[in-house]
């Protein structure tokens, strides 16, 4: 019999052990809400909820590695559903193209809510054990994958060709920026979504995807709000400085030159990142957000390492209806080796290896004043002035509003405006009751956006 | 520095270049001294200035402090019930949502504070449930309503009652009048007497219709005055109400004319016995004044004679008990005579209307026993136990009416026998009710119905109607189980 340690993340300052029991045999840290967040859409979540009753499942079994069950659907044979508990993944032989399907969600929900109805056995049916073995084998293959021999001449040719294209594009970008600035930006709001279209397309042609992406970010500026001038000017001047950095790249420190290359669109191969020194830690998923840009959905997962006291940002991109692959939801914890993309302020990361989680109650230090947060922001910007998102945690703040603007005020009585939409602000106020709370958020373009807040042993994710 | 930079950015560097003051940091002077184009120098200065500002931002002091939410005295709903409520709101499952709200009200508990904003928004949409929803929002709800002008209207009806009639929305005024009518009927009349003439025709009509509940003789003088209202709809409504008030001048004249038109005669039966028989006289034609009180002179029903039709109309607003007494008969005898009349079929709707309105048990039973009753309101004259044998006769005509009647706001469990009969009917006609009604029905099924539901859900047959029905049964099983779990 295993001893279970269930850790509930309720305060950003301390992680308290609130439940310890020998009755529950496996670590089950996903709760109902978190499981529902794994659903690809609302319809799947609803259907999953309807399947979360023992009566729907002819077979319900589990052990420390997996959960599996058989659900009678409209077909003659029951659907066989399995869930990998080590590194959450779903498998089902139903014809649904959604992932996870309603059966996977239903089984997981049922397990989260009513473990007692599951038969505990180490003997797994073939469809479960074979699937788990395949997954394990795939992970091992990925880890040991050797680099194919590279044709150095061809690669050098490709690099040279791209350098040439980027350099050409960069010249055009600088000329375009100069033209815009010479004429003034007062008229931009009248053609906000078109004025950069041609140069954006040109950057795509010049294989400077990063610059094209930053030009597209101009569309995110709300030209009806006061303050658009500064946001637009920041975006345009940053592009110019990046181009300047590219021109003088040989005289820049290595880390800064790499930052500039990344901003322009040179990607660091995944294999190269995986070779870097990992940070082994117990990580908490602080927030998961999705944003759509054209046909691409960007998933941003913020993690915090309890031992290393470091933030990490996992970025995933999904084209069209591509199913989401990361089964991480806010509030869960993972034991993992994480590797950071090389940068002057390493933040973007990827998981190299994830292991079965063990309870890790711990303690973390969190600032309680915005002055400290601003100091951290200054430090980050001094190292990399192009940093888009700077994560922060703070405790002892309270929400308030004045003149139609929302603020959070720290223990010293100092306040910062927040960028959360109004409905999130009211949720925040309702949850906190006007009292003090702790928060995790991201500072972007000088605006504070709170993602998670907690007080009195409870927390809510404002973005979910 | 920033102002200068922004000014140049807006106007363009051809028109304006930022002025570098002597106090400006050295970096600006150095950038300005670069031997490059003015656009190059400007963009470098702009980026430097913005990053300088961002990196050096300090928190501000604001003079705004919100009051803290008062402590909640009631228990906060947690666990499965809270999770289900959240899911029901997200899925817009109104049936389950309604039940969960009912359960929370019943337990005298409040929802978690983080759900309150969504519930307050819901209360704005569902005005009829406003009080209930605001109630389960507890102190957090009251507190947020004070802070948010959008939600403030939710509390208006509960706090500043004296002003609602003068300043509230039509809906809140109607709610106010309905409540007043229940607690103090005369005060409601007094309120309308003073203000009704200032309302438009639609409002006058809407407010008058609210008086239908609890009509009494004391309302007559007020209603009489409205017989000269400018709006025809208002006049018709007022006449209808006066007809219903037993003892009002209109009702009395209807009663008198009815008694003149009908009579009971005795005739020999099989030569030895005598039998009473109802006669409707075609020789008596009511006054012209009667036809000004909403009574039609000419029959609109095919094959029904005018005098029978007139008598029927007069009959529909007369208390059966009073009629029986005047005819020196018991209620059973009087309804018997009407039903034996050759024109009984034509009189049925009027008899039903009178029986429903005055909840006359003898008449209701007689009409129900015929087996062709159409107005389910007849059941209101009976006790719940007495109603049982009659429910099924309403299934074939309009099943949704029966379900609307059976499914009450208190979610009272249906007798198991009735539940079985309903499910048996639905297994044959699964599309007689819609999916939400199936769900609503599940919430009133007794716990012992599970084996029956299981039997239907596991029926091996696969025809398309049955498949739909089986799915409904599975969902109902889930809901019955859920209801049991959150009891």
Structure description:
The complex is a heterodimer of chains A (464) and B (487). Chain A has 464 residues and is of the alpha+beta class. Chain A is 34% helix and 28% strand. Chain A contains 12 helices and 18 strands. Mean pLDDT of chain A is 85; it is low at 1-28. Chain B has 5 domains: 2-54, no CATH class; 79-156; 162-245; 252-366, no CATH class; 388-485, no CATH class. Chain B contains 27 helices and 2 strands. In chain B, a hairpin with a 3-residue loop joins strand 1 (262-269) and strand 2 (273-280). Chains A and B meet through helix 1, helix 2, helix 5, helix 8 and helix 11 of A and helix 1, helix 3, helix 4, helix 8 and helix 27 of B.
Chain pair forming the biggest interface: A-B, 63 and 58 residues
Largest sheet of chain A: 6 strands, antiparallel
Distance between the termini of chain A: 36 Å
Question: What structural category characterises the helix and strand content of chain B?
Answer: mainly alpha
- The global form of chain A is globular
Provide the low-confidence segments of chain A as ranges.
1-28
SSE string of chain A = EEHHEEEEHEHHHHHHHEEEEEHEEEHEEE
* Share in helix of chain B: 55-70%
SS element count, helices of chain B: 27
Number of strands of chain A: 18
Q: Kindly report the average pLDDT value of chain B.
A: 89
Which secondary-structure class do the elements of chain A indicate?
A: alpha+beta
User: Order of SSEs of chain B, N→C?
Assistant: HHHHHHHHHHHHHHHHEEHHHHHHHHHHH
Low-confidence stretches of chain B: none
């Amino acid at each position: 019999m295993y001893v279970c340690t269930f850790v509930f993340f309720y305060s950003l300052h301390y992680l308290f052990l609130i439940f310890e029991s020998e009755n529950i045999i496996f670590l089950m840290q996903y709760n109902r809400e978190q499981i529902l967040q794994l659903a690809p859409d609302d319809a799947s979540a609803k259907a999953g909820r309807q399947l979360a009753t023992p009566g729907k499942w002819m077979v319900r079994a589990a052990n420390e590695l997996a959960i599996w069950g058989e659900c009678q659907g409209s077909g003659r044979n029951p659907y066989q559903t399995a869930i990998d508990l080590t590194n959450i993944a779903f498998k089902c032989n139903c014809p649904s193209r959604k992932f996870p399907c309603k059966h996977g969600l239903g089984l997981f929900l049922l397990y989260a809510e009513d473990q007692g109805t599951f038969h505990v056995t180490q003997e797994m049916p073939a469809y479960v054990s074979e699937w788990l073995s395949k997954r394990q084998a795939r992970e091992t293959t990925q880890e040991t994958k050797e680099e194919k021999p590279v044709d150095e001449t061809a690669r050098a040719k490709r690099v040279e060709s791209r350098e040439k294209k980027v350099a050409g594009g960069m010249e055009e970008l600088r000329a375009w920026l100069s033209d815009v600035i010479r004429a003034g930006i007062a008229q931009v709001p009248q053609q906000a979504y078109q004025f950069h279209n041609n140069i954006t397309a040109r950057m795509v042609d010049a294989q400077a995807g990063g610059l094209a992406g930053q030009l597209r970010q101009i569309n995110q500026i709300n030209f009806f709000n006061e303050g658009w001038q500064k946001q637009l000017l920041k975006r345009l001047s940053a592009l110019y400085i990046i181009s300047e950095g590219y021109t003088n790249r040989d005289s820049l420190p290595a880390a800064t030159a790499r930052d500039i290359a990344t901003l322009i669109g040179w990607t660091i191969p995944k294999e190269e990142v995986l070779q870097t020194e990992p940070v082994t830690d117990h990580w908490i998923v602080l927030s998961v957000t999705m944003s759509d840009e054209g046909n691409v959905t960007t998933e941003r997962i913020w993690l915090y390492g309890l031992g290393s006291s470091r933030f990490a940002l996992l970025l995933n991109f999904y084209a069209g209806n591509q199913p989401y692959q990361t089964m991480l939801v806010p509030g869960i914890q993972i034991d993992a080796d994480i590797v950071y993309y090389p940068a002057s302020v390493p933040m973007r990361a990827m998981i190299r290896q994830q292991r079965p989680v063990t309870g890790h109650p711990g303690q973390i230090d969190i600032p309680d004043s915005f002055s400290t947060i601003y100091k951290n922001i200054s430090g980050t910007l001094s190292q990399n002035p192009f940093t888009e998102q700077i994560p922060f945690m703070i405790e002892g703040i309270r929400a308030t509003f004045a003149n139609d603007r929302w603020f959070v005020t720290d223990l010293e009585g100092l306040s910062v405006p927040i960028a959360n939409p109004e409905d999130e602000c009211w949720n925040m106020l309702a949850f906190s009751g006007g009292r003090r709370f702790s928060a995790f958020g991201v500072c972007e373009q000088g605006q504070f956006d709170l993602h998670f807040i907690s007080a009195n042993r409870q927390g809510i994710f404002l973005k979910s | 520095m920033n102002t200068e930079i922004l000014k140049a950015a807006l106007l363009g560097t051809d028109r304006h270049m930022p002025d570098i003051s002597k106090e400006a940091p050295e970096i600006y002077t150095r950038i300005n001294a670069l031997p490059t184009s003015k656009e190059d120098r400007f963009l470098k200065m702009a980026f430097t200035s913005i990053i300088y500002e961002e990196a050096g931002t300090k928190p501000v002091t604001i003079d705004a402090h919100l009051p803290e939410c008062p402590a909640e005295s009631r228990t906060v709903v947690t666990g499965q019930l809270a999770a289900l409520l959240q899911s029901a709101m997200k899925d817009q499952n109104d049936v389950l949502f309604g039940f969960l709200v009912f359960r929370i009200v019943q337990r005298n508990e409040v929802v978690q504070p983080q759900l309150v904003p969504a519930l307050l928004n819901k209360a704005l949409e569902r005005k009829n449930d406003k009080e209930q929803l605001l109630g389960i929002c507890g102190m957090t709800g009251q507190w947020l309503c004070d802070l948010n002008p959008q939600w403030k209207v939710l509390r208006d009806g509960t706090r500043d009652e004296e002003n609602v009639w003068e300043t509230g929305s039509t809906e809140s005024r109607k709610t106010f009048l309905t409540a007043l009518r229940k607690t103090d009927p005369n005060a409601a009349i007094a309120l309308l007497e003073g203000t009704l003439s200032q309302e438009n025709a639609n409002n006058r009509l809407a407010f008058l219709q609210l008086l239908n509940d609890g009509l009494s003789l004391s309302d007559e003088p007020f209603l009489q005055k409205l017989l000269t209202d400018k709006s025809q709809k208002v006049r018709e409504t007022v006449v209808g109400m006066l007809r219903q008030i037993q003892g009002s001048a209109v009702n009395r004249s209807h009663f008198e004319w009815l008694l003149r038109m009908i009579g009971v005669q005795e005739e020999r039966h099989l030569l030895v016995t005598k039998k009473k028989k109802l006669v409707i006289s075609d020789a008596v034609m009511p006054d012209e004044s009667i036809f000004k009180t909403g009574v039609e002179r000419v029959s609109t029903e095919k094959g029904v004679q005018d005098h029978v039709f007139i008598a029927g109309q007069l009959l529909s607003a007369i208390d059966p008990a009073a009629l029986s007494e005047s005819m020196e008969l018991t209620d059973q005898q009087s309804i018997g005579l009407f039903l034996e009349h050759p024109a009984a079929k034509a009189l049925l709707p009027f008899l039903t209307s009178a029986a429903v309105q005055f909840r006359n048990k003898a008449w209701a039973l007689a009409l129900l026993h015929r087996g062709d009753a159409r107005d389910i309101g007849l059941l209101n004259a009976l006790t719940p136990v007495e109603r049982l044998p009659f429910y099924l006769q309403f299934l074939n005509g309009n099943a949704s009416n029966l379900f609307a009647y059976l499914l009450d706001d208190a979610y009272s469990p249906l007798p198991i026998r009735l539940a079985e009969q309903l499910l048996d009917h639905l297994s044959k006609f699964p599309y007689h009710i819609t999916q939400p009604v199936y769900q609503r029905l599940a919430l009133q099924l007794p716990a012992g119905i599970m084996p029956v539901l299981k039997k239907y859900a596991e029926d091996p047959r696969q025809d398309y109607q049955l498949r739909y029905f089986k799915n409904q049964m599975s969902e109902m099983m889930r809901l019955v189980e859920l209801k049991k779990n959150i009891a």
